[in-house]
Specification:
This protein is α/β, with parallel strands linked by helices. The protein has a domain of 252 residues: Rossmann fold (3-Layer(aba) Sandwich), CATH 3.40.50. It is 52% helix and 13% strand. The chain has 14 helices and 7 strands. The protein has a 7-stranded mixed beta sheet with strand order 1-7-6-2-5-3-4, with helices on both faces. Helix 5 packs antiparallel against helix 6. The chain is globular.
Length: 381
Amino acid sequence: MRILLILFCLFLWSGCAVSAQTTDGDSATTPDSYRVYAGDGTPSSLEAVMAAMGDVDVVFVGETHNDPTAHMLQAELLKAAFMRYGAGNAAGQPRPVTLSMEMFERDVQYVVEEYLADLITEKQFLASSRPWQNYETDYRPLVEFARAHRLAVVAANAPRRYVNRVTRLGPASLDELSDQALATLPPLPFASASSAYQAKWDKLMAEAMAEMMAASKEKAEADSSETADEHGKMADGEHGKMADGEHGEMADGEHGKMADGEHGKMDEAEAASAGASMHGGPSYLIDAQSLWDASMAHSLAKALMAQPGALVLHMVGGFHVEGATGTPEHLLRYRPGTRILVVAVRPHTDVTAFDAEEFGGLGDFVILTDEELPRTFDAGS
């Protein structure tokens, strides 16, 4: 179950319950904390990434959501886009620079714009925009930079309640929504996952299944050992204690709690759909993922239409964009000819070791970051 929760945190709602941790911003961007490579593994530089941004319409920066170095690099790339190509560039004709974010949903776009225009306070903004719980540490610097320099910010994601509906009932269930609800979604029907994206998804699910089975086996072995130890204690005296009190407490308390609460959580539609997928049954998880991607892509297409010539930086979980699959594919359907740049940022044990089989082709640039640095939150909590 823990593996399923991690999957949902990463792909269906990356703002799940997290515990913030303090990270050292300076250590996150020291030369030793990351290395930049071209997509084929050739050593490159952040300067090369910044230069390449000038030739495209959309820069996809694919992150791991709790990677402190990724977030610092995102801030540097946004600043570089503004200083080199936007209003911060005194020479030449400046381009509009736009920040697009997976971390906000399309139905709060007007709330984001009210905050950027100083019509509401930050407290009101946070109360109304449903920010991810790691907003303060990881995404606030981006929004505040955009606000200070009058950059547009796109709340790119589909409202989670409709992603959840697809998870439970499938894409056709969206046809029953009101016109008001449909206005927050891409045109229906949205495209299905490509074969390449499906293969990537299947690989992820297979890995999750293998990890879940290994964890289950390990737990069973630990429980077996613990049971043997407890049996010995019971023989020496604990049995009487349990008979006189602990057994009744468990029956009246813990069992009821599990039946009324924890077990109920496992029966929620998302967990059921995930479980069905793991066991070969019907599942709409990949359809929900495609709605996520299509919504962000449609938001990007609209942003480019609203500001011709704009340079848009889209901050997003890496799975959505690596290999130019997912969101980039949907964008090219909505706006053929869009020039894109994919920057895949991946934590790794050794940033100097580029494994072509693991990292090759993830993006036009691949940035390996030091995974030993403290995470900004615990994704498994």
